[in-house]
Amino acid sequence: MAELNNEKLEEELKAALWFSIGKIVDEETLKLGVNATPQFIGALTEMVWAQIENTSQDLESFSKHAGRATISVEDVMLLSRRNEGLEDVLRSFVDKQKGGNNKAVKKK
């Protein structure tokens, strides 16, 4: 019974993801004056879903390795370590949330 509920939840989440990606693709294709097929949106949705699954598994593994049951900011930062641009954006966001900016600001 629990497996059936999980499958239903997964279907609902994929449908919501497909809808959201479809809206974004529609907006962008209108701006660019091009068309996107439903197959493209479906393939993009599957690719994003696979990335979400990989990311969630990695985050879960990082937190378990650290002996925690909850995913922390450190786990997310560890995940972003291979994407310098993403890491910079996330670090800036974390610093802002903590109420300070740890990077030195150069004066002109």
Automatic annotation (TrEMBL):
- What biological-process GO terms show up in the record? DNA repair; replication fork processing; resolution of meiotic recombination intermediates
A Pfam family this protein belongs to? Answer: CENP-S
- Keywords from the UniProt entry: DNA damage, DNA repair, DNA-binding
Q: Which InterPro entries does UniProt cross-reference here?
A: CENP-S/Mhf1 (IPR029003), Histone-fold (IPR009072)
Domain of life assignment: Eukaryota
The record's section on CDD domains has:
HFD_CENP-S
The protein depicted here goes by the name: Centromere protein S
Q: Which organism is it from?
A: Heterodermia speciosa
